[in-house]
Amino acid sequence: MEKTLCIIKPDAVKNSFVEEINKSIKSNGLEIINSKQIQLSKKIAEDFYSEHAERPFFSELVEFMTSDFSVVQILQGEDAISTYRKLMGATNPEEAEEGTLRARFAESLSKNAVHGSDSADSAIREIDIMSKIFD
Ligand code: ATP
Ligand code: MG
Asked: What's the fold here for domain 2-39+70-134?
């Protein structure tokens, strides 16, 4: 069974969408095997999104991800990575397909409700970074 790392971002937590999002995750055949509500530290957020360190939106991204509580989760299921990415929809909610989590719950490109690992390597790396918060 494949695992992937999911974050319900601060906008969606603040807007009380956690339950609805998790209902969709489960109805798409994915099991939530760890879940924790936590305010991410700057250090973890910078490490987690380090692939974007040189991008102009990096500081805005880190600031937003550390601004309030997120819900960090490990999902497990068949093809969990691609299943969950499909369920999330496009990064920009204006381009996200109808019915996807970002079409339903995202506010904007930066406040886009959810994160999901984009490959097997990312999933391993991201689960490793977040594993300490589940201890
Ligand atoms: P995530 O990694 O959060 O699941 P993603 O894989 O769909 O999103 P990435 O390209 O990894 O998209 O970008 C990471 C996050 O950075 C996006 O979710 C978005 O919130 C933010 N972001 C991406 N591009 C821009 C941009 N041009 N302006 C502002 N924020 C952006
Ligand atoms: Mg990404």
From this structure: Alpha-Beta Plaits (3.30.70)
